[in-house]
């Protein structure tokens, strides 16, 4: 699932290709924007806010999108074959003279006034990848519900923005935190800092790696390794769902390296 680093890389590519360029054709394939024509407007910049992508246009409009599980933006040169998926999965087409940006499987795609972007991202906590990341505010947000599990607290974008299941799972392993451990029992400063360091490192690397080994099958400690031996102690990796539907997420952990709290799965 796309997380903060994935969205930041997508924004960088889109901004390099489209920034400062005029849109010569737009095609939105969602009901709410089906008749919208943004041709003639220029792309001022493309920025990330947590897992949200904001494409700011001249005339005070912003195209807002969110990848959720499998959305993506692809860039193609004129005449190049589109390879992001079948045509029925295309949600938006934005053309300039030099590039075509195609949005696939975007579950969130809307148009807002640029000066009203807070209506779609104002609920987010501090962005871990932002140059002005407010560490103190992020920690204060996490501390607001000390009995909540650290897993649920880290995934709540209202606390801090950019962490997804990969980072939450891997950071908990690296710090020896059981997924059901309450926030009150966690060194939040260390947890926030490690999440930020991993996100920033993978922003440069272009892949999501927590082990330091960027090879297939060796990039993670416990994420998506249910039933396999722990890379540290050889204990079988456990898995279970954490949180309430529809926000429940699968969790992975090593029962030996991440001791269980008094409540929660062992």
TrEMBL record:
One Pfam family from the record: H2TH
Annotated keywords: DNA damage, DNA repair, DNA-binding, Glycosidase, Hydrolase, Lyase, Metal-binding, Multifunctional enzyme, Zinc, Zinc-finger
Residues spanning the membrane: none
Enzyme Commission number(s) of this protein: 4.2.99.18
GO BP terms, alphabetized: base-excision repair
GO MF: class I DNA-(apurinic or apyrimidinic site) endonuclease activity; damaged DNA binding; oxidized pyrimidine nucleobase lesion DNA N-glycosylase activity; zinc ion binding
Claim: DNA-binding is one of the keywords in the record: yes
Top EC class of this enzyme: lyase
Name of the protein in question: DNA-(apurinic or apyrimidinic site) lyase
Protein's organism: Kribbella antibiotica
